[in-house]
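Collaborator request, handled under Task 6.
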Amino acid sequence: MRSTIVVGYDRSLPSGRALLEAGREAACRSADVIVVHAYWRPVAAAEDLVRAAAEQTAEFGAAMLRHHHPGLTVRSRAVTGDPQEVLASLARGADLLVVGARGDGGFAGQALGSVTLRTLARTPCPTMVVRHAPRDARGVVLAAIDLDDPAQEVLSFAFADARRRSAQLRVVCAYDLSAVRTVLPDVGESSEVRAGILAEADQELDRMLKGWQDRFGGVRVVGEVVDGPVGAVLTAASAHADVIIIGARRIDGERVGVRVGPVAHTLLRHTACPLLVVPHR
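Structure tokens returned to the collaborator:
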């Protein structure tokens, strides 16, 4: 069964960037694409005109994708409703949802990340947020994990994505030792203690990745433990990656929707490459 990618499009520059990135992803995955434009239901007198304009917008985006990727199967959908609710609903049967970091027109032109954050809060599937125009491939997939609570869904997705792209997988674990320095300043400032903490974490990361390497033979993997604030470490690393993959915990008892934490908030505003959020338990 072919996979499906849903992308939100409203003729804005950010949604155009998302559209192009969705095309790249679809070509890499041999996936079909659904270009979605959400619009508010107008008064009855203008309903036909507004619906026709919305359908034209969705089809314009689909035509752009067909032009850039002639081999793709691309469909367009114009749907009335709240943009994030529409996207979340259509993404329920999809393998990936792609959105821009801002939105105009059908996506209301709200403040930076407002629609994006609410879409993530309802997402039923991995969601890619695109901030910049597509750039030349770096050949690196960047994945962030927490050694204290590693999400299997994130690692599985990251390894599969690196294999699809024939890219190196760089798995980063950021340890912010400033907390140690604050509580135990004498210990925290010791270079030996710092080196020992990082070395122990590095060994644990290597052990974890070994099992995944056995499952995904052929994927080149580099594990790295870095001392520093998580958001800052990942933002810097994103400059050298094609995509950065992070996890977000599902809302308790729900099959859709995730808790968008501070790291995601930081990356939504500062990442240099597309951010891909993978829901996990």
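The cover message to the collaborator said: "The beta strands are 4-8, 32-39, 74-80, 96-100, 127-130, 140-144, 168-175, 221-227, 243-249, 275-280. Confidence is low (pLDDT under 50) at residues 103-112. Please let us know whether this matches your experimental observations."
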